[in-house]
Amino acid sequence: QVQLVESGGGSVQPGGSLRLDCVGSGILFRNNVMGWYRQTPGKQRELVASITNGGRTEYGDFVKGRFTISRTSGTNTVYLQMNNLKPEDTAVYYCNVVWGSRTDWGQGTQVTVSS
Fold first, then answer.
1. What local confidence, expressed as pLDDT, does residue 31 receive?
2. How far is the C-alpha of 111 from the C-alpha of 75, rounded, in Å?
3. Cβ atoms within 10 Å, residue 91
4. Which residues, 6 or more positions from 60, have their beta carbon under 8 angstroms from its beta carbon?
5. pLDDT of residue 3
6. What is the 3-state secondary structure (H, E, C) of 4-62?
7. How many CA atoms, within 13 angstroms, populate the side-chain half-sphere of residue 38?
8. Is 2 helix (H, G, I), strand (E, B) or coil?
9. Long-range contacts formed by 47-50: CB under 8 A, 24+ apart
10. Ranges of residues in the chain whose predicted pLDDT is under 50
Protein backbone atom coordinates (compact mmCIF):
# COMPACT_ATOMS: atom_id res chain seq x y z
CA GLN A 1 0.00 0.00 0.00
CA VAL A 2 1.36 3.39 -1.00
CA GLN A 3 1.54 6.03 1.71
CA LEU A 4 2.65 9.64 1.36
CA VAL A 5 3.06 11.36 4.71
CA GLU A 6 3.29 15.14 4.55
CA SER A 7 4.50 17.54 7.22
CA GLY A 8 5.60 21.14 7.59
CA GLY A 9 2.52 23.17 6.75
CA GLY A 10 1.34 26.01 8.93
CA SER A 11 0.87 29.75 9.11
CA VAL A 12 3.45 32.35 8.19
CA GLN A 13 3.57 36.08 7.50
CA PRO A 14 4.15 37.42 3.98
CA GLY A 15 7.82 37.19 3.07
CA GLY A 16 8.33 34.25 5.39
CA SER A 17 9.48 30.70 4.66
CA LEU A 18 8.22 27.18 5.18
CA ARG A 19 9.52 23.75 4.28
CA LEU A 20 7.20 20.89 3.38
CA ASP A 21 8.37 17.30 3.72
CA CYS A 22 6.85 14.19 2.15
CA VAL A 23 7.92 10.65 2.98
CA GLY A 24 6.71 7.96 0.59
CA SER A 25 6.47 4.24 1.24
CA GLY A 26 5.19 1.25 -0.69
CA ILE A 27 6.36 2.70 -4.03
CA LEU A 28 7.66 -0.29 -5.90
CA PHE A 29 9.29 1.42 -8.90
CA ARG A 30 12.62 3.17 -8.54
CA ASN A 31 11.76 5.32 -11.57
CA ASN A 32 9.12 7.74 -10.40
CA VAL A 33 8.25 11.41 -10.25
CA MET A 34 7.37 13.02 -6.94
CA GLY A 35 5.84 16.41 -6.68
CA TRP A 36 3.79 19.00 -4.86
CA TYR A 37 0.48 20.39 -6.03
CA ARG A 38 -1.77 22.93 -4.40
CA GLN A 39 -5.46 23.68 -4.40
CA THR A 40 -7.71 26.48 -3.21
CA PRO A 41 -11.52 26.30 -2.96
CA GLY A 42 -13.18 26.51 -6.36
CA LYS A 43 -9.96 26.08 -8.30
CA GLN A 44 -8.27 23.14 -9.95
CA ARG A 45 -5.26 21.55 -8.37
CA GLU A 46 -2.09 23.03 -9.89
CA LEU A 47 1.50 21.91 -10.11
CA VAL A 48 3.89 23.62 -7.71
CA ALA A 49 6.99 21.54 -8.43
CA SER A 50 8.04 18.02 -9.34
CA ILE A 51 11.27 16.06 -9.35
CA THR A 52 12.25 12.76 -10.94
CA ASN A 53 14.34 10.14 -9.18
CA GLY A 54 17.17 11.39 -11.44
CA GLY A 55 16.82 14.92 -10.12
CA ARG A 56 15.14 16.63 -13.06
CA THR A 57 12.80 19.36 -11.80
CA GLU A 58 9.79 21.24 -13.08
CA TYR A 59 8.08 24.27 -11.52
CA GLY A 60 4.80 26.07 -11.88
CA ASP A 61 5.11 29.47 -13.57
CA PHE A 62 4.05 31.30 -10.41
CA VAL A 63 7.04 29.95 -8.44
CA LYS A 64 9.51 32.34 -10.13
CA GLY A 65 12.57 31.23 -8.18
CA ARG A 66 10.91 31.37 -4.77
CA PHE A 67 10.53 27.62 -4.18
CA THR A 68 13.00 24.75 -4.43
CA ILE A 69 12.12 21.07 -4.65
CA SER A 70 14.64 18.40 -3.71
CA ARG A 71 14.72 14.74 -2.76
CA THR A 72 17.05 12.51 -0.83
CA SER A 73 19.00 10.40 -3.33
CA GLY A 74 17.84 6.80 -3.49
CA THR A 75 14.73 7.44 -1.41
CA ASN A 76 11.14 8.51 -1.89
CA THR A 77 11.45 11.53 0.38
CA VAL A 78 10.87 14.92 -1.16
CA TYR A 79 11.13 18.44 0.22
CA LEU A 80 9.70 21.77 -0.87
CA GLN A 81 11.49 24.85 0.45
CA MET A 82 9.24 27.87 0.04
CA ASN A 83 10.70 31.36 0.47
CA ASN A 84 9.23 34.83 0.08
CA LEU A 85 5.74 33.48 0.59
CA LYS A 86 2.80 35.60 -0.55
CA PRO A 87 -0.85 35.62 0.55
CA GLU A 88 -1.78 34.08 -2.81
CA ASP A 89 0.30 31.02 -1.88
CA THR A 90 -2.34 30.14 0.71
CA ALA A 91 -3.67 26.70 -0.21
CA VAL A 92 -3.74 23.05 0.69
CA TYR A 93 -0.53 21.49 -0.58
CA TYR A 94 -0.56 17.86 -1.70
CA CYS A 95 2.35 15.52 -2.22
CA ASN A 96 2.02 13.11 -5.12
CA VAL A 97 3.96 10.36 -6.84
CA VAL A 98 3.65 9.02 -10.37
CA TRP A 99 5.05 5.54 -10.89
CA GLY A 100 4.22 2.98 -13.55
CA SER A 101 0.58 3.61 -14.44
CA ARG A 102 -0.30 4.90 -10.97
CA THR A 103 -0.67 8.29 -9.37
CA ASP A 104 -0.96 8.47 -5.59
CA TRP A 105 -1.71 11.45 -3.36
CA GLY A 106 -1.09 12.44 0.21
CA GLN A 107 -3.76 13.84 2.51
CA GLY A 108 -2.65 17.44 2.08
CA THR A 109 -1.24 20.05 4.42
CA GLN A 110 -2.54 23.58 4.87
CA VAL A 111 -0.28 26.55 4.18
CA THR A 112 -1.62 29.95 5.21
CA VAL A 113 0.20 33.19 4.43
CA SER A 114 -1.32 36.13 6.24
CA SER A 115 -0.33 39.19 8.19
1. 85
2. 25
3. 22
4. 46, 47, 48, 49
5. 92
6. EEEECCEEECCCCCEEEEEEEECCCCCCCEEEEEEECCCCCCEEEEEEECCCCEEECCC
7. 20
8. coil
9. 48/80, 48/93, 49/80
10. none
